[in-house]
UniProtKB/TrEMBL annotation:
Keywords: Acyltransferase, Transferase. Residues 1-146 form the N-acetyltransferase domain. PANTHER family: AMINOALKYLPHOSPHONATE N-ACETYLTRANSFERASE-RELATED, AMINOALKYLPHOSPHONATE N-ACETYLTRANSFERASE-RELATED-RELATED. This is GNAT family N-acetyltransferase. InterPro entries: Acyl_CoA_acyltransferase, Bact_Acetyltransf, GNAT_dom. GO terms for molecular function: acyltransferase activity, transferring groups other than amino-acyl groups. It comes from Dyella choica. The keyword Transferase applies. The lineage of its organism: Bacteria, Pseudomonadati, Pseudomonadota, Gammaproteobacteria, Lysobacterales.
Length: 146
């Protein structure tokens, strides 16, 4: 089952973000800053929304959707971010269920596309995204932290 996140999910979402940052980048997150960041999404829907996946009545993962306006397409791209599935629930279709839910919501809202970024070494995730119909873009990602 996939459902919109609620305030009662904040601790789990923060915990999963900490786990994901460590698994993917060996990065330790500031937990107080992260807690405020999760709350900011729940408090301001314009920023996006979280979904939580449940398996056998237990919360086992989440993702964040944020929006990017495209003037070229006169519509929003929906970005998958902060995707996490608990190790014991991986390969059980949890992400696929969340992806399908987001795709349906995006179509109903008139979004123009779905996007995400993935670690270059995460070949399993890349294969999953291709199997879902996503295509690798020709863009590189750059950033400058402020």
């Amino acid at each position: 089952m996939v459902r919109p996140a609620e305030r009662r999910d904040m601790a789990a979402i923060a915990e999963w973000n900490v786990a994901m940052a460590w698994e993917t980048e060996q990065k330790r997150l500031d937990q107080q800053l992260l807690a405020r960041g999760v709350a900011a999404v729940l408090d301001e829907p314009r920023r996006g929304f979280y979904l939580v996946a449940e398996l056998d009545g237990q919360s086992v993962g989440c993702l964040l959707v944020t929006y990017e306006w495209s003037d070229w397409r006169n519509g929003d791209f929906w970005w998958f971010q902060s995707v996490y599935v608990a190790p014991e629930a991986r390969r059980a279709g949890v992400f696929r269920a969340m992806y399908a839910d987001v795709a349906q919501r995006a179509k109903q809202a008139g979004a123009v596309g779905l996007r995400l970024y993935v670690e270059t070494e995460n070949l399993r995730a890349q294969r999953t995204y291709r199997e879902l119909g996503m295509e690798q873009c020709h863009y590189f990602m750059y950033e400058q932290m402020l």
